[in-house]
UniProtKB/TrEMBL annotation:
One of the protein's GO biological processes: RNA catabolic process
Keywords, sorted A to Z: Signal
Keyword check for Signal: yes
Gene3D superfamilies the record matches: Ribonuclease T2-like (3.90.730.10)
Classification of source organism: Eukaryota, Metazoa, Chordata, Craniata, Vertebrata
Name by which UniProt lists this protein: Ribonuclease T2, like
Domain of life where this protein originates: Eukaryota
Length: 263
């Protein structure tokens, strides 16, 4: 009897501890003095990064097969990244059921374009690398909320339309300059947005990505932002700012030949 009592006491102790962790997961880390002091939560700026499928395939190494699903015809999400976080933890698990209610939307706006990697794994990776750190802010403090914010931001920045309205359309022949694209996008993406290119195997500059700095509160621009290329996840990524003096291609999307849209 005594033994059973002890056992029950122990069990309830364990449950309480588990609930403590669970509360952290559910509500993020606000109010926790210990955790607030960690570099994990000290970020001031975010980068919202969108990718252009017509150029993205050129950014992969030759052995990685690129696939652009038939339904994908515009800019898609790469990620939403807190800046200058030393490392984000993979301590906050995410399950498929966490994003189930918006899976269709995510599939449309945040697809994996890498054949061997499912979209869910792309999201999972982004959550572990960046989302779990973004979760220090109210409103992004769960996988569901984080991905909802990303979708909302995607809706806010209709890059293809903005460019089209200015006569900048995907093309195999026309070349564009950083200054003309920047002029069109700056009123919407802020002055500090970055247009990113990759160099294709013929040495051409190909536009494939745009990085949009955001404040903690998700307004465009961020004072503490300086240089887009710091933090985890984009070190060693193949892109670079499109050189101002070299005109670049804004390739069309070719679903049949994603890697060679222009033959
Ligand atoms: C968002 O944050 C920025 C920078 O901290 C600040 O200047 C701006 O007023 C804030 N905007 C809102 C709507 O809170």
């Amino acid at each position: 009897m005594l033994l059973l009592g002890l056992l029950l006491l122990q069990l309830s102790g364990i449950t309480a501890a588990h609930q403590g962790h669970w509360e952290d997961y559910k509500y993020g880390h606000q109010g926790s003095e210990v955790l607030d002091k960690k570099p994990l939560c000290s970020w001031k700026c975010l980068l919202f990064t969108l990718q252009w499928p017509g150029g993205f395939c050129q950014s992969l190494n030759k052995d990685t097969e690129c696939v652009i699903p038939q339904s994908i015809n515009t800019w898609t999400i790469h990620g939403l990244w807190p800046l200058r976080v030393l490392s984000c933890c993979s301590c906050w698990p995410m399950f498929r059921s966490d994003v189930q209610e918006m899976e269709a939307e995510l599939t449309e706006h945040w697809p994996s374009l890498v054949k061997t990697r499912s979209s869910f794994h792309f999201w999972l990776d982004e959550w572990h690398k960046h989302g779990a750190c973004a979760a220090c802010v109210e409103g992004m403090n769960s996988p569901l909320r984080y991905f909802q914010i990303c979708l909302k931001l995607r809706g806010q920045f209709n890059i293809r339309r903005l460019l089209e309205d200015a006569g900048i359309t995907p093309s195999c022949e026309r070349l564009y300059k950083v200054v003309e694209v920047h002029r069109v996008l700056a009123p919407h993406l802020g002055d500090k947005h970055e247009i990113q290119c990759v160099t294709d195997d013929q040495g051409r500059q190909v536009w494939f990505q745009v990085k949009i700095p955001l404040s903690h509160n998700l307004t465009v621009g961020c004072d503490h932002h300086s240089g887009a290329s710091s933090g985890p996840g984009w070190n060693g990524s193949p892109g670079h700012p499109c050189p101002p003096e070299v005109p670049f291609y804004y390739y069309p999307i070719d679903h049949q030949q994603p890697l060679q849209p222009c033959g």
